[in-house]
């Protein structure tokens, strides 16, 4: 079943790269007590993700925070080291990179896709959402191949 507005974020383990190494983060703990704008990309360093999706959130970080967002996060079915390098290469210091290397989070959200036709295997779908203290208040899932409703601009318009 796909997550919907009003649902609680499921329990899943995500990983964040830190100077001390990979740090496991429980999704329920990460989203507790704050308002988070999170977006999912099919993969770090992929064309649309690198040219449009991540840069949009980097450019609009201050505007999102001015609208009440406490933290901006990005997730992808990549490892924490790739996510950290991608953030560094894109000046994304205001974005918390959450690796979903085993697609556990995407699976539990019901938002996976089959990228095997491109040699990518199981991936998370492209989406954005706002999660307020663990509850989904906005959810924008892209149709395959599209990039419009999961953009930072679209999400800003919903706040």
Structure explained in plain terms:
With 159 residues, this protein is of the alpha/beta class. The protein has a single domain, classed as Glutaredoxin (3-Layer(aba) Sandwich), CATH 3.40.30.10. The protein is built from 6 helices and 9 strands. A 5-stranded mixed beta sheet has the order 5-4-3-8-9.
Quick tags:
five-stranded mixed beta sheet; 159 residues; globular; 30% helix; 9 strands; two-stranded antiparallel sheet; single chain; alpha/beta; Glutaredoxin
Total count of strands: 9
Low-confidence stretches: none
Biggest sheet layout: 5 strands, mixed
Query: Whole-number radius of gyration?
Result: 14 Å
- The oligomeric state of the chains shown is single chain
The CATH homologous superfamily corresponds to Glutaredoxin
Number of domains: 1
Q: Any idea of the CATH topology?
A: Glutaredoxin
The proportion of strand residues reads 25-35%
Discrete helix count: 6
**Spatial ordering of strands, largest sheet:** 5-4-3-8-9
Strand-pairing-aware structural class:
alpha/beta
CATH classification, class level:
Alpha Beta
Percent of residues in helical segments?
25-40%
Instruction: Please give the alpha-carbon distance between the first and last residues.
Output: 26 Å
User: What is the approximate shape?
Assistant: globular
Order of helices and strands: EEHEHHEHEHEEEEH
Mean model confidence by pLDDT: 90
Q: Any idea what the CATH architecture is?
A: 3-Layer(aba) Sandwich
């Amino acid at each position: 079943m796909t997550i919907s507005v009003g649902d609680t974020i499921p329990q899943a383990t995500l990983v964040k790269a830190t100077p001390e190494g990979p740090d496991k983060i429980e999704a329920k703990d990460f989203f507790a007590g704050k308002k988070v704008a999170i977006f999912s990309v099919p993969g770090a360093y992929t064309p649309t993700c690198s040219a449009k999706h991540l840069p949009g959130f980097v450019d609009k970080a201050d505007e999102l925070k001015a609208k009440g967002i406490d933290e901006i996060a990005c997730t992808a079915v990549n490892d924490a080291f790739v996510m950290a390098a991608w953030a560094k290469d894109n000046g994304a210091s205001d974005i918390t990179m959450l690796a979903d290397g085993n697609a556990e989070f995407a699976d539990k959200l019901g938002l996976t896709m089959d990228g095997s036709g491109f040699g990518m295997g199981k991936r998370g779908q492209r989406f954005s959402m706002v999660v307020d203290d663990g509850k989904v208040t906005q959810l924008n899932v892209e149709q395959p191949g599209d990039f419009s409703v999961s953009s930072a601009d679209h999400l800003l318009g919903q706040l």
